[in-house]
From TrEMBL:
Keywords: Membrane, Transmembrane, Transmembrane helix. It holds the Pfam family Gpr1_Fun34_YaaH. Belongs to the acetate uptake transporter (AceTr) (TC 2.A.96) family. It comes from Carnobacterium divergens DSM 20623. This is Uncharacterized protein. The chain crosses the membrane at residues 12-32, 44-62, 69-91, 111-128, 135-157, 169-195. The keyword Transmembrane helix applies. It is a multi-pass membrane protein. It is found in: Membrane. Its main location: membrane. GO terms for cellular component: membrane.
Length: 204
């Protein structure tokens, strides 16, 4: 008698919920500091590392298994951003010694923010054809990085700092909604929380 092998197809979860929850948490805590509701960045660090960094990298890994280039790139890109930013804060606060702390040039962080602004602009174009919630999250991230690199370079510092702070807080609110929609829509099997259809602007 022939032995039959049954291959069970592995179902890979949609990582959108955990990725957006990670983004929502870190931007909520980070924006509280920018808006002056809290002080310093030491208390932001754990959320930058674990929620902003690791949670989004986990989401990226699952999106890669879905062969979702856009989702995997977005979650990996922003996950690594929070790890890099967290390390920059550690250097600024002397965790790696006085020599590195003394030689830290904030303008280098400004160029990193500029690079992420460029990254976010073309990701926003891609987000046009995902859903409206995700598009507006990317749209707000554009303003976050615009505010960050301009204020870091000392250009209209107060104005651009506040732009970044408000944009980051709104990113958090929309990301909480997006995470809730991803969980509850999938859990219930119907559109419990609407996220809006793609714009349908970019076509072959």
């Amino acid at each position: 008698m022939k032995n039959e092998q049954h291959h069970v197809k592995q179902v890979i979860i949609d990582p959108t919920a955990i990725g957006l929850f990670g983004l929502a948490m870190v931007t909520l805590v980070a924006s509280s500091q920018k808006l002056g509701w809290t002080e310093n960045v030491s208390g932001v660090l754990p959320w930058a590392i674990f929620l902003g960094g690791i949670a989004q990298l986990i989401a990226s890994n699952y999106d890669a298994k879905h062969n979702n280039v856009f989702g995997a790139t977005a979650f990996a890109g922003y996950g690594l951003f929070w790890l890099g930013t967290g390390m920059s804060w550690m250097i600024q606060n002397g965790l790696f010694g006085e020599v590195l702390q003394a030689s830290f040039d904030p303008n280098e962080l400004g160029f990193a923010f500029l690079g992420y602004f460029i990254f976010t602009v073309f990701m926003t174009v891609g987000a046009l054809e995902t859903n409206k919630v995700l598009f507006f999250i990317f749209f707000l991230i554009d303003f976050l990085f615009l505010g960050l690199f301009m204020s870091t370079f000392g250009i209209a510092t107060d104005f651009f700092h506040m732009m970044a702070a408000v944009a980051e807080f709104l990113i958090s609110i929309l990301s909480f909604y997006g995470a809730a929609a991803a969980v509850l829509n999938g859990h219930f099997g119907f559109t419990f929380l609407p996220i809006g259809k793609p714009f349908g602007i970019i076509k072959k």
